[in-house]
């Protein structure tokens, strides 16, 4: 950087609109793809949930009580000899 010279003044750039169009043209396909993909996922999700409700019925209104597991009782070892 030179010490004695001030920076050049900003000039209007004619490439701005062209650059903006290029950026828009680059990003537009990704945005369209995201929109189409999102819509497809929503449709597929609604169909899957509908089929699951048909197969399993509606979910219960409340959760069932948790299952309590009794402690295991000790087992007696099996004899390898025939009785």
Largest sheet: none
Helix content: 40-55%
Element order: H for helix, E for strand: H
Number of strands: 0
Structural class: mainly alpha
Q: What Rg, in angstroms, do the CA atoms define?
A: 35 Å
pLDDT below 50 for ≥5 consecutive residues: which ranges? none
Mean pLDDT: 83
SS element count, helices: 1
What is the compact description of this entry?
This protein has 1 helix and no strands. The chain is an all-alpha fold and 83 residues long.
Structural features, described:
- By secondary structure, this protein is mainly alpha-helical.
- It is built from 1 helix and no strands.
- The longest helix is centred in the middle third of the chain and has 42 residues.
